[in-house]
Amino acid sequence: MATSPQAKYRKDYQAPTHTISDIELFFDLHDNQTLVTAVSHVHQQSESTTLVLDGEGLTLQSVKVNGVDWVDYTQSESSLTLHQLPELFTLTIITQIDPQANTALEGLYKSGGAFCTQCEAEGFRRITYYLDRPDVLAKYTTTITADKTLYPFLLSNGNKLAEGELENGRHWVKWQDPHPKPAYLFALVAGDFDVLRDHFVTGSGRKVDLEIFVDKGNLDRANHAMVSLKNSMRWDEQRFGLEYDLDIYMIVAVDFFNMGAMENKGLNIFNSKFVLANEKTATDMDYLGIESVIGHEYFHNWTGNRVTCRDWFQLSLKEGLTVFRDQEFSSDLGSRAVNRIHNVRIIRGPQFAEDASPMSHPIRPDKVIEMNNFYTLTVYEKGSEVIRMLHTLLGEQDFQKGMKRYISRHDGTAATCEDFVLAMEEASGIDLQQFRLWYSQSGTPLLKISSDYQASSESYTLTVEQTTEPTADQPDKQPLHIPFDIELYQQDGTIVPLQCNGEAVHHVLSVTQPKQIFVFDNVPERPIPSLLREFSAPVKLEYDYTDQELSFLMVHATNEFARWDAGQMLLAKYIRIHVESVQQGKSIELPDAVIDAFRGILLNETLEPAFVAEMLTLPNHNEVSGWYKQVDVDAIAQVLHQFKVILATALVDELSVIYHLLKQEEYSIDHKAIGQRALRNTCLSYLAYTEQGEGLVYRQYRQANNMTDTMAAMSAANAAQLPCRETLMDDFSAQWQHDGLVMDKWFALQGTNPAEDVLLVIKRTMQHPAFSMKNPNRIRSLIGSFLTMNPVRFHAKTGEGYQFAGEILRELNTSNPQVASRLIDPLLKFRLYDQHRQTLMKKELDALKNLDNLANDLFEKLTKALDQ
Ligand code: TRP
Ligand code: ZN
């Protein structure tokens, strides 16, 4: 490597020396030689007459200042520096780029037959030299010229101003976006599509055209995205009072995309996975995923676009807040409890694991080498939990007051996380000084609770101790302000009103000290506490519950989340016990009382089926691994497998009855039907481990009239290694091999196949006509699923899993570093495993680190993991 990449620090923020008020862009699109002309109006904002522009992989053709060739400039690998500039000037830069050769999918690239862009975070600098930073906001006018037959649709941000024909079969379209924006929100698309058109009338009566562009032939898969978009627009008006601000909203679905979707102003670009769905091709999970991502990108229009980020360290300002908004959207439209459960599983699983990894960082990072490495579970999901805690502390009304204040104060500008917290503080009058630590402190706090009941004084004491272990990035931790939601129950299920010193207290306690004692009076008997209700803070909880107390809460807790959580704690207790049993060569058993608690849930007809399905779902291998400093991969897998077998065997009659009872004749996609399918398919996932398994799974596959049921049958066959697995897999591939997006489901089952020879199969599958190492979705489905969801085989003692990961990463380091950098995470966690495995994993990391063309993305992660 030539030079070591340089880190940037949050503390070093400096306002830009210049700003750009307007930019006019001209694109002359050609596969290999696209010419980009950028005409910017530049204003000096400081003492400096020198302007440093960002640029990467550009061929510079010419530079003019006020129309005159400018020679006083210097160029480096990543910048263009202009000297001796006037105070106010028009800068004209012509660059040439090669979209066809762009496999990194950043900047301007080709996805299938279409041109498209991805500029967040720092992709615009691959299009032209520019002040590629989010605090430079300009008005964009964009003219696109391209071949008319190949690219009948030429799209960019804002409104269409004009269009025209040229000789030699080319045409042009000119767009203008009236809202100033940073470069990362710029977008361009050129291609041939089918278009689904609709419109939305805003609260104030403006008509907005809605257009969804999909590959030809896919129109019958765009309806759910359109419905979700209209629901998003309505919801943001009703819940947040926020209306859309352009006359047109476009969404383009592309097959080659590094992430989920991108909120470019007025022109969202989506991974086709989050647009395309019909009952034959998409599962219920896909439908819900589309609803949430369409919502997420739409909600960015206010939280991200109208108010953007001052610098990339502030990413959680828009992402944490927008995730919070999309979670609320899904919860208002569907089941709040089920949504909360899914979100909490992500925090307790992969987000806690990230906190414990070499990549640990606060939701507002302090040091970054490659920004793409910080689109993380911490910034997004924990960021959303931090917003949720504010919401819990303030309540909906004051939270909305704070939102109004934040938006009106910062509309049209680039803001910071501090600006947001300040608006919330001012709106509510609540002191958030200590709360601000959530933005700067990384790691997972642990709450240790103990309780004491004094019958004589009818008083109940909760002692709360908080600690946060040091993380890779921060040795010292301080106590945080933790909203701690509790309820106390009497044996008969009634709730004890919370009183301290004779006065009523709120059920959300403010924990602020390292150790804090809460004394509640007028408690008539020793109560059963429901702790950290709604997962009121992203922390680990330790409290010595008895089995009886947990079984009680599973039935009597007033809120569904608390019941689910009690069930999870009961399972967790026995999973831990039996991981040890396995290590000591003892057998695995579950007490009858535990089995009966789950039987009770299964037979309780008053519960929503979707909720019952969640109650019956065991924590996965990754989540359980997160409980340990030294992970015993095989023991955990054995325990989880045995629990499934034990529960399936003990509850076979109940599971079977419910499975048959929930069969639906007609397919529909409403929440009730989704919930019933979820429970029925959860039953199937257990029944697969019983004698009936093979017959039921095979029959369900044959009879399925929707992808949810098809996939449930295949997943059950895969997990339980049923004899019919091969037949079903062959049948599916014969039916869908022409469709990469559908085949992703099949690839993921190949990747997570627990069979011993899975690696051979994966290597063979890489030759499948639907597979391509150029397409991130295919890579993630087949290879990503092997690395993260097939722990036993990935961590095979032979080291073949690690070696395979190494090979793939070396290839992707060159072709698509952003995808490489996401895939490497499991290898970075080598310290969690035994010496033998550690050595093998490190060997692969060392080999990668020695690559002479190592990308910044991998460099940053490798140095963090290896230099500790
Ligand atoms: N802002 C996008 C979102 O939250 C994230 C995103 C999409 C992204 N594509 C990207 C981030 C590419 C970095 C690189 O929806
Ligand atoms: Zn986002």
UniProtKB/TrEMBL annotation:
Q: What is its main location?
A: membrane
User: Which keywords, in A-to-Z order, does the entry hold?
Assistant: Aminopeptidase, Cell inner membrane, Cell membrane, Hydrolase, Membrane, Metal-binding, Metalloprotease, Protease, Zinc
What's its EC?
3.4.11.2
One GO CC term, this protein: plasma membrane
The residue ranges of the Aminopeptidase N-like N-terminal domain are 29-185
Q: Where in the cell is it found?
A: Cell inner membrane
Q: How does it sit in the membrane?
A: Peripheral membrane protein
Q: Where is the Peptidase M1 alanyl aminopeptidase C-terminal domain?
A: 547-866
> InterPro entries, from UniProt?
Aminopeptidase_N-like_N, Aminopeptidase_N-like_N_sf, PepN_Ig-like_sf, Peptidase_M1, Peptidase_M1_dom, Peptidase_M1_pepN, Peptidase_M1_pepN_C, Peptidase_M1_pepN_C_sf
What cofactor requirement does the entry state? Zn(2+)
| Peptidase M1 alanyl aminopeptidase Ig-like fold domain segment(s) | 443-544
The protein's annotated catalytic reaction(s) are: Release of an N-terminal amino acid, Xaa-|-Yaa- from a peptide, amide or arylamide. Xaa is preferably Ala, but may be most amino acids including Pro (slow action). When a terminal hydrophobic residue is followed by a prolyl residue, the two may be released as an intact Xaa-Pro dipeptide
* Molecular function GO labels: alanyl aminopeptidase activity; metallopeptidase activity; zinc ion binding
Domain Peptidase M1 membrane alanine aminopeptidase per the UniProt entry, residue ranges: 228-435
GO biological process annotation, one example: proteolysis
Q: Which NCBIfam families match?
A: pepN_proteo
Explain the purpose of this protein: Aminopeptidase N is involved in the degradation of intracellular peptides generated by protein breakdown during normal growth as well as in response to nutrient starvation.
Instruction: Provide the family line.
Output: Belongs to the peptidase M1 family.
Name of the protein in question: Aminopeptidase N
Instruction: Tell me which species this is from.
Output: Vibrio cincinnatiensis DSM 19608
